[in-house]
Design goal:
With about 375 residues, the protein is of the alpha/beta class. It contains 19 helices and seven strands.
Length: about 375
């Protein structure tokens, strides 16, 4: 906060060097995903096969794949990267790692999120926005942009707003500056990925040269994302609230402008562990507490649809049976000890709540009861 008010330090990122090195360390996964996304777009542009014939719904399957990519991108932020070598890092970021981790998603409500986006698309071919509250820079921001790009390319959304921190807050937290740095790295991939880091220079290591195809795949993404931004279908919105002390359940009262934006959105995606903890108040909820209850006012007739994509790195977990928690505790060898299974980022949740449906239900109940002032959501949120 103090740096932001100074003349010369306002744009300085004290974690900048670590962010750059982490992004360079993710080079194999970025190369792989840049190539995979090219194939995803090709598949997306093929004529869809009807589910009624027993064939797969290509768009939904691709949406679920991209959400998986986005989810597990949260599994390797700087808090974890510091303890990982190159091979361990790749074991967390590649396609093979994601396939192995599928069984570790203990709550998966992605299908519900897809359904509301398709419903909105059918009802309103015009403007439809999705908001993504970002977590980390580097590789995770890269996969978040893969998701944003997919939403726009598939027309599941006509606008995506990325919500960033206004300051470098906790090591790898994403800022607007990180967004532009990533696009620059992808525009000039040889300059970025073939320039050795300080550690590589110290150990006389020269990064391998990128192939022409790898360069092209990255540059295509950079051109596409810059174009989305120039056309105002992809926006970056830094906001102070994300680094304030309030938890996100207080959005309706302490950040009304953001809350009202979210009410106009078709879906609000909260990325990562800390955003999940702030959604749930970072409280010691019993694990079988419903996600709806844990997110407070956002879990009422809020007119906000919430999707949390989170790899678990802290004790706070809701929406799972106690028996599952007991089983997972036992896997650590400490069945009666702390919830260590939820510390490593190896387990994940994809939890959804539809505040728009809740608001419609509240309005219908109010009308049925004969209440002339039937807007129940307004009575709650003022």
């Amino acid at each position: 906060m103090t740096f932001s008010k100074t003349q010369f330090w306002s744009e300085y990122d004290v974690f900048g060097r670590q962010k750059v090195e982490a992004l360079k360390a993710s080079r194999p996964a970025i190369i792989e995903l840049a190539g995979r996304y090219k194939t995803i777009v090709q598949q997306l542009n093929k004529p869809a096969r009807s589910p009624s014939t027993g064939s797969s719904n290509t768009e939904e399957l691709l949406f679920r794949e991209v959400c998986d990519i986005c989810l597990w991108g949260n599994g390797s932020d700087l808090s974890i990267l510091a303890s990982l070598g190159p091979e361990q890092l790749q074991s967390r970021q590649g396609e093979e790692a994601r396939k192995k981790a599928e069984k570790n998603v203990i709550v998966n409500q992605i299908r519900s999120a897809y359904s509301v986006l398709k419903e909105a698309q059918a009802k309103n071919p015009g403007e439809r926005r999705v908001d993504i509250v970002l977590d980390n820079a580097g590789f995770e921001l890269f996969v978040d942009l893969i998701l944003a790009s997919f939403l726009l390319t598939s027309n599941l959304a006509t606008e995506v707003v990325l919500h960033t921190k206004t300051i470098p807050w906790f090591i790898s937290d994403a800022t607007e500056q990180d967004f532009w740095a990533l696009l620059d790295a992808l525009e000039f991939p040889r300059r970025f990925f073939e320039t050795p880091t300080e550690d590589q220079k110290h150990n006389s290591i020269q990064p391998e040269r990128l192939s022409d195809e790898e360069v092209t795949n990255m540059q295509v993404l950079s051109v596409s994302w810059n174009s989305f931004h120039e056309n105002r279908t992809l926006a970056v919105q830094p906001t102070w609230f994300w680094t304030n002390y309030q938890d996100y359940r207080e959005l309706p009262t302490h950040a009304k402008d953001i809350f009202e934006q979210f009410q106009q959105s078709e879906l609000v995606i909260f990325k990562g562990d800390l955003n999940y903890r702030k959604l749930t108040g970072d409280l010691a909820w019993p694990v079988d507490t419903s996600f709806q209850m844990a997110i407070g006012d956002l879990g009422g007739p809020s007119n906000v649809r919430v999707l949390a994509l989170r790899t678990c790195k802290a004790d706070v977990v809701v929406g799972i049976p106690k028996s599952m928690d007991k089983h997972l505790r036992a896997t650590t060898g400490k069945p009666d000890g702390p919830r260590e299974w939820a510390w490593s980022g190896e387990w994940a949740v994809m939890q959804f709540f539809d505040g728009k449906e809740e608001a419609r239900g509240a309005e219908e109940r109010a009308q049925y009861s004969g209440n002339t002032d039937s807007d129940a959501a307004e009575s709650v949120y003022g």
